[in-house]
Amino acid sequence: VVAxxxxxxxxxxxxxxxxxxxxxxxxxxxxxxEDVRDVVLxxxxxxxxxxxxLAVGDRxxxxx
Length: 64
Fold this sequence. Notes:
The protein is α+β, with helices and mostly antiparallel strands. The protein has two helices and two strands; from the N terminus they run βααβ. The chain is 31% helix and 12% strand.
């Protein structure tokens, strides 16, 4: 019996809506025991963001 390798996890994508901030998105996707500041940094790195400024319609990748 040969076990298949697990499929690579695909990042989720969030479309920025009016009123959304990187902090609010990070708060929504953070695990219960995860520091939101760490999630904000991870989102910035994954999306090549220099700041936390977002525009409506931006697509933010949320790494698994």
